[in-house]
């Protein structure tokens, strides 16, 4: 009789706790998964931060979080994660009443793009581990991975000379009374711009830079239509890095720089375009646009893009970045040169690639060799 009574009481307690957990486990429970840094550069470290707040007087003996994100984030190997088409996490917690738990997971962002955590599955077991309660949290944590910077030693010498020539040509009319900043000396800098005080402090030649009084711009036109299908995505990614590198350089020289592409924003599906500027944050704006660009969805022909953004009334410098070199583009390039426009072409390709019908280092055409580590 006593045994039956104990069993009956136990059954009642079991049913009560099951009902209590079913009704109350989600109350006062807040789950947040976010990125430590909302914007990082390709190759940089970042961290995923999980915060769980149990704001009630109820123990959550086993709380399970399940979510997925891009496999391009490289995490240390763990038992509670798996990588297939996505990176899947499956984390377990025990939450005491009125407890806040924070966990941080470091990773490396290995590829440019915008990435989101769109939902989290939350599973909670009761005290007897008998019943699982489920809920889903709509989450829109976002991180933007900017294109990687290309190291100086990985840039062809002829391209360095070319960019220096562009700077010299545009800054002929710089105002010697409009001081801008101090930077390291470059081979094309005039000797009378050397800042001897800064040079003495650093043991490296430094020069003063000045704002320009003219209205010349650099316009970068980026083609994401490739010459061949083979290695097309890799070539497109390098083209994006090159565009970012050039924009960073020219804006650093206080030259108004614009960037346009026939690639589209992955959300709006509109062509990528950033008008000319050189103020604080302009390179960031360009990099953010490049981070969101799709390499597999070219919205228009590059020839049309060129014609749309060529201003024949302005004395601008146009830099075309294009691995594509079929007849329609070749004809357009030479037509613009015959018109007397300042148009140059950079062809990103592997060292073994033949860039015919263009010839290297001739007619303002340059091959950017990309057979090296980034």
Query: Structural class of the secondary structure composition?
Result: alpha/beta
Number of domains: 2
Largest sheet: 7 strands, mixed
CATH class of the largest domain: Alpha Beta
Helix percent reads 25-40%
- The CA-CA distance between the termini, in Å, is 78 Å
Give the SSE order as H and E letters.
Answer: HEEEEEEEEEEHEHEEHEEHEHEHEE
Count of DSSP strands = 19
- Which residue ranges are poorly predicted, with pLDDT under 50 across at least 5 consecutive positions? none
Beta-strand fraction estimate: 35-45%
CATH-derived architecture of the largest domain: 3-Layer(aba) Sandwich
Radius of gyration: 29 Å
Helix tally equals 7
Shape: elongated
Average pLDDT: 85
CATH topology of the largest domain: Rossmann fold
Protein model, in words:
The structure is a single chain. By secondary structure, the chain is of the alpha/beta class. The protein folds into 2 domains: 30-146, Immunoglobulin-like; 152-369, Rossmann fold. Helix content is 25%, strand content 39%. It contains 7 helices and 19 strands. The protein has helices at 2-24, 157-170, 196-202, 232-252, 282-291, 302-309, 327-338; strands spanning 29-35, 39-41, 45-54, 60-69, 73-74, 81-83, 87-95, 99-109, 113-125, 132-146, 174-184, 206-212, 218-222, 257-265, 271-277, 293-298, 317-321, 342-349, 365-369. Strands 13, 14, 15, 16, 17, 18 and 19 form a 7-stranded mixed sheet that branches. α4 (232-252) packs antiparallel against α5. The longest helix has 23 residues, at 2-24. The protein is elongated. The chain starts with a helix and ends in a 5-residue tail after the last strand.
């Amino acid at each position: 009789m006593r045994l039956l009574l104990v069993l009956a009481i136990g059954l009642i307690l079991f049913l009560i706790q099951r009902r209590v957990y079913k009704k109350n486990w989600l109350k006062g429970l807040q789950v947040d998964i976010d990125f430590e840094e909302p914007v990082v550069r390709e190759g940089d470290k970042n961290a995923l931060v999980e915060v769980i707040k149990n704001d009630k007087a109820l123990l959550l003996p086993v709380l399970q979080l399940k979510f997925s994100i891009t496999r391009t984030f490289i995490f240390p190997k763990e038992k509670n994660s798996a990588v297939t088409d996505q990176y899947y996490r499956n984390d377990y917690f025990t939450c005491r009443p009125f407890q806040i738990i924070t966990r941080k997971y470091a990773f490396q962002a290995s590829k440019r793009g915008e990435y989101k955590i769109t939902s989290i599955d939350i599973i909670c077991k009761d005290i007897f581990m008998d019943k699982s309660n489920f809920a889903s949290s709509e989450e829109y944590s976002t991180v933007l991975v900017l294109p990687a910077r290309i190291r100086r030693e990985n840039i062809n010498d002829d391209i360095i000379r070319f960019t220096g020539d562009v700077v010299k040509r545009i800054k002929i009319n710089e105002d010697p009374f409009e001081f801008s900043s101090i930077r390291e000396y470059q081979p094309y800098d005039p000797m009378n711009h050397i800042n001897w005080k800064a040079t003495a402090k650093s043991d490296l030649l430094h020069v003063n830079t000045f704002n320009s009084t003219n209205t010349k711009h650099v316009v970068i036109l980026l083609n994401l239509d490739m010459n061949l299908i083979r290695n097309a995505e890799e070539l497109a990614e390098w083209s994006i890095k090159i565009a970012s590198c050039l924009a960073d350089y020219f804006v650093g020289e206080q030259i108004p720089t614009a960037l346009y592409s026939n690639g589209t924003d992955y959300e709006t599906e509109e062509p990528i375009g950033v008008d000319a500027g050189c103020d604080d944050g302009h390179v960031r704006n360009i990099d953010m646009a490049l981070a969101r660009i799709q390499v597999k969805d070219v919205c228009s022909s590059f020839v049309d893009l060129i014609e749309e953004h060529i201003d024949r009334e302005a004395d601008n410098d146009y830099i075309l970045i294009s691995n594509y070199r079929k007849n329609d583009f070749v004809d357009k390039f030479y037509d613009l040169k015959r018109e007397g426009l300042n148009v140059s072409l950079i062809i990103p390709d592997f060292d073994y690639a033949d860039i015919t019908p263009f010839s290297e280092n001739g007619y303002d055409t340059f091959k950017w060799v990309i057979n090296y580590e980034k």
